[in-house]
Amino acid sequence: MMEETAEEYLEDLIQRSLIQVSMRFSSGSVKYCHIHDLLRELAIEKAKEISFLKIISNQGASYGSSAIRRAALHCNSLDIIGYTGLNLRSLLYFGDMPNITSFELLKVVSEMTSKEIIRPIKGDIFKKMAQLRYLGISSCYSFFGADAELWKSISRLRNLQTLEVPNVHRFTCDHMPIPDCIWDIKTLRHAIVPEHSVGPPATADLPNLQTLKTVRVRASWLTDGWPKIPNIRVLRLSVFPLEYGESFGTFLRGLHHLASLYVNVHHVGSSSYDMLDMSAFPSYDCMQSLRVDGHWSWNKELNICLFPIHLTKLALSFSNIQEDPMPVLEKLGSLRILKFDSAYLGRQFSCSAAGFPCLEYLEMYCLEMLEEWQVKEGGMQMLKKITISCCYKLRVIPELQHMNNLKELSLIHTQAYLQNRLQGEEEYKIKHIPSIKIT
Question: Is pLDDT at 427 greater than 60 in this prediction?
Fold first, then answer.
């Protein structure tokens, strides 16, 4: 797939020191990257020499010719690039969207700012851009107050592969509707829309869609069927379990290529029925990342069969887990990242000597009832980083001196009793760790 090939190229550039990594995800993939200042200056000079790119500021165009194909606009003048001709293929702009209606050959349009831009985009601005493949608008203010014609013009972009309108401004985006016409774009591969947008209708047929974030499950899906997204790889959903129950599990069972799933389970009550029934949750061969915010039906009796067998990342929040989940989770042999956030109501974590053979990152937040964490010698041998925050009752941590790969330990807002012991009589547990943060 082209996305995987692109990641391989990026890693190759990193290995050659042409690209520098600013931050990686805990999974190891690149989150932010940049280039060295000297390389940047060299690239700019070379771009100027071969007319690869035009940079335009308030002081005017810095270089380039009328044959330029790529432009970066650092100003608010809406007509400043009008003279560059009709050959422009890529536009990155910092500010209000310029008047680009005449640039019919554009393939990439990307807004690179998160400022509160209040000028809405004109409804017909994309009307003639039949070649557009990437449309990224980082400021939802650009869409606030937009008329239906804007969405219609976007829906007619029959070569569009990526639509990115993330949830940036809480005052405008939380309830900004995404009309159904957007889901008529058969070529869409990645759709990142404002949180709480309603998902595609049941009639939607999106065979190329790989990424869908973040949409609310439609009520009509229960009666009319679920949308056809057979090749989805990354899915982020909001769901009300009382409305969907077992049908949600049936829907998931048909997504054979799903690699990353994030489900935000909303609750309207406290009964046991206010949970998703995941008894039919499949053991995906492809799924590597699972995040669940809210109560799921595995809370009362955890079973290893409920989890994808090749899972490498698991994050649980507000899960209301009653029993110690570690004896089950430690059997996930590929798990590298485990995160708890207000997910467990018990007093003890217990891990066996053979548990978590590949775990590298462990994060525990707001486990307010947790008092003791035990790991038998031989367990968690690959652990590199531990973060414990707001676990106010925690008094006992494991014999960490047996974890030879441990590089970083953070204890944030834990009780003074634990901190004093680790800085006194139990210092032997942590003195081998290169980076220790206790606050």
Answer: yes
